[in-house]
Amino acid sequence: QYITLLRGARLLLINGFSFNKSGHIGNRGYRYTCSQYKKKCRAFAHISSNDTILKANLEHNHLPTQYARVKDGKYIKLAQYITLLRGTKLLLIDGFSFFKSGFIRNGGLRYTCSAYNNKHCRAFAHISADDVILKANLEHNHIRPKYKQVTDGRYVKVELAYTQYITLEKGIKLLMINGYSFSKNSRIAKGGIRYACSSLLSEKCKAYAHVSANDVLLKCYTEHNHSPIQYVRTSNGKYIKVSSSKKW
Ligand SMILES: [Zn+2]
Ligand SMILES: [Zn+2]
Ligand SMILES: [Zn+2]
């Protein structure tokens, strides 16, 4: 069975799981890969030109994605929800979370990205009374929040690494993440900056962070192979490095 999404993508459905066309298998047909390949699902199917399954791995590492039929016989992904420990219900779309922010016609609800207050993210979604995503802006200016399932199926937000900056006596600005300092390393796309662990040279530490032009932590690797460098704040608000114990 095939379904066509509202935006035109054609998906293959097998046992309720959806697959995207990912290539040819010679001139015999097409290869389809599970739509959740980003979740490292390895399910696939080889479909001949007369629509028979030639070969397939139908073992998925996730639940089927639910689709609902909308106008013109097209389909749209159903909204999913998670409930936080305190009872707040959040909408999840593509790993991003949204909170209820208003009503729309016919009993639907408007949802706003959870990062609206912190990051001024403008992503939103309109959800019909039967949980279909009617309309959405899914362009986010931040990374996906992480939620972890805890007791009775509820979730807690795993806090993103906390970032702040300190300025050294000599005027050098360092990025601090979880007590470790990072120095400006290079420019990345859209005016962002790549920071490398301040112990890159001395310890060959591979930790790094990508920060966008508007100070959002886009991506980071924070496994350090050393203990953090200690800094002390001086009377003028600037910081100086405290000699590391290695030198003693
Ligand atoms: Zn799968
Ligand atoms: Zn957002
Ligand atoms: Zn490091």
From TrEMBL:
Annotated organism of origin: Spodoptera frugiperda
Domain FLYWCH-type intervals: 6-62, 85-142, 165-226
Entry-linked InterPro entries: Znf_FLYWCH
Record has Zinc as a keyword: yes
Stored Pfam families: FLYWCH
Any one GO molecular-function label of the UniProt entry: zinc ion binding
Keywords: Metal-binding, Zinc, Zinc-finger
Name used for this protein in its record: SFRICE_037136
